[in-house]
Amino acid sequence: MQTSTLVVRGDELDRSGAVSPAKLLSYCEGARWLALGQGGPLAVLFSGGHKVLVRAQRAQIGQPARLGAKLTSTVWLASVGRTSLELGQQLVDESGAMVARLLLTVVHLGPEGRPVPVPAELAALAIGRGELEGLAAWTLGQEAPPADAFAFHFFVRASEIDLFQHVNHARYLDYFLDAKVFGDRGGQHTDWPEAAPLREVVLDYAAEAVIGEVVGAALWADGEPGVLHAALVREGKVLCRGLLRFG
């Protein structure tokens, strides 16, 4: 396990006075960069032009993180496949309260950007999912949004592109939550969850969104209390599927 710390700054708070769920995902990504670059055994994933790409993540959101909070991230290798691996991550505050838990599936890419085998020596370092085992059971519903799903469209800006030249994975959650705000206006979606904190997130990434594209964030309910299903779509192609549980 590898740890790092950060302190919440004022410019990182959202309109509720706390760190937004998508910003928490960004915090966790930054902590993973530190963990993978600390010279430990996981640093081999970035050697010789190799890199890892988030393919899916399951997140549980806990205690709000507010101004000045000191957060500690712990990252560990949960399991190893042929060209992918699972990372476990937990973010806690100074009291030890859970702020976020993540289970991520990441793909190991070679210098040409195609999946390549995970270094064999990492298999012996996997320690399992631990408390995150329950997150692995979260599943998504149908792949494509129904015809009557609410959709809000976004133009992908240059400021949303990361160093891998596509929209950063945390931004997809922003798209979905921003769309919910606009969909809530007027109260026409009576089957949607009422105002409540986001507690659980499932995001499965299928394709990239890049600069200059128009993408639609579709949201719909299926009768399960507190749950919204989501899909980010470009010209009929699903780029990301999501599940948001509020409560």
Description:
Strands 1-3-4-5-2-7-10-9-8-6 form a 10-stranded antiparallel sheet, with helices on one face. Strand 9 (227-234) and strand 10 form a beta hairpin. 13% of the residues lie in helices and 36% in strands. The chain is built from 2 helices and 10 strands, in the order E-H-E-E-E-E-E-H-E-E-E-E. Helix 1 (21-36) packs antiparallel against helix 2 (169-184). The chain is mainly beta. It has helices spanning 21-36, 169-184, and strands at residues 2-7, 51-61, 70-80, 84-92, 98-109, 150-155, 198-205, 214-220, 227-234, 237-246. It folds into 2 domains: 2-133, Hotdog Thioesterase (Thiol Ester Dehydrase, Chain A, Roll), CATH 3.10.129.10; 150-246, Hotdog Thioesterase (Thiol Ester Dehydrase, Chain A), CATH 3.10.129. The protein is globular, with a radius of gyration of 18 Å.
